[in-house]
Amino acid sequence: MQKEHKTALFVATLTAFATTFSASALTLSIPSIGAEYGFGAASIGWIVTGYVLASAILSVPFGRIADLTGRKWVLCLGILLFSLFSLLILITRSPGAFLIFRVIQGVGAAMIFATNQAVLIGAFPPTTRGKVLGFYVAATYTGLTAGPVIGGILNHQFGWRSIFVLGVAMGAAAFFVALLKLPASGAYKGTDKMDVIGSILYVISTGMILYGFSSLTTAVVAKYLLMAGMIIFVFFIYRESKIQHPVIKVRLFRSNPAYLFSNLAALLNYGATFALGYWLSIYLQMVKGMDSQTAGWVLVSQPLMMALLSPMAGRLSDRIAPYRLASLGMALCAAGLIPFAFATETMPMTLIVACLLTVGVGFALFSSPNVNAVMACVEPSDYGVASSILATMRSIGHSFSMAVVTLIVAERIGNIPLASADTSLITEAMRISFIVFTLLCFLGIYFSMKRRK
Description:
There is one protein chain. With 453 residues, the chain is mainly alpha-helical. Helices cover 79% and strands 0% of the residues. It is built from 18 helices and no strands. The protein has helices at 3-26, 30-37, 46-69, 71-91, 95-123, 126-158, 161-181, 196-214, 222-240, 250-255, 257-273, 276-287, 292-299, 301-316, 322-337, 349-376, 383-412, 423-449. Helix 14 (301-316) runs parallel beside helix 16 and helix 17 packs antiparallel against helix 18. The longest helix is centred in the first third of the chain and has 33 residues, at 126-158. 53% of the residues are buried.
């Protein structure tokens, strides 16, 4: 392996691990952060929502900018923002500043998501890309797996700020290696201009839709933002279908139903499962009375199954129709979520772990085969576009999942501190959330099954 190959692999896998680790590790610190800063039950969700919202609405425009200006510089700037604002979160004492810094951290994450995998693919010849992408996926799931355990231990032993200290260290290492060792990448020759108007319309419409939905019960203007965002998004789709160099190639959805259904299935799957760790971190600590370290060992069961089984599921999808495996995975996710829709304050721990294991197996069976199904729907010349859109579906699914939680918590609990909330109200809000998530899974099964080879 040549030196530049090792550099690209190191930077891509470290940033993949750091971003997923930071997100999954922080969920167990939500009660501690809420208690320190005085966040209410409704507003504390924005610690996660602000981050995923920023990464969701900006990944596609940053991907386009990176293709036109050079991926290395967008990646380096993203790592710098992510690391710098991790450091600022460590020292701020203002709740408002904390949330703003998390949003800007999400901007940095959007730059990383839009470029690190592309940098890795561009550094290796086609004959070895599958192998190195395996390392990239492994780093992603390792971050998800290690996050709850290491984050829970760090929070319990040293406080939640220690998680950001580790994030700063990883970010600094990735930044200096990328800046000094990563070869400069020029603009992609197949593109010649940026659709600035389309990018602005995309950011405004998705931002208004996701923020408006999240704030329906807390902001009077939210419903108007939601409706305006939908109107602008419809105009955006119409415009993208008419121009030569769109931000998103609408023709792929219009001319290929299997591609459309595969992306819808991804959107619904991520929307149904992302908030699982967030809700259980609150439930295990605030209702069950666990410390963050013990809760971390419980939550690790889901991403551990994902990390162990995803490579096998990917290999199976080469021999079995991907839509069948993905549909089975969605069904298992639904089976794992259903018991939480009937959760009580005395829900057995064995049932909780069994549900997490089931969701982990289901997600593993869904994720890799669904990516395989998406790529089978497009020509090689559209692989980059297809990957970008699939990543956007993931980010929007994450944002929607947290928006559902924020909406339900604001309606059922209000904006009182979590420590003051009645455990019965927390459990009730969790039940309602999982009813919605289970329904999303069943809708995802429907779209997944509508695909054919």
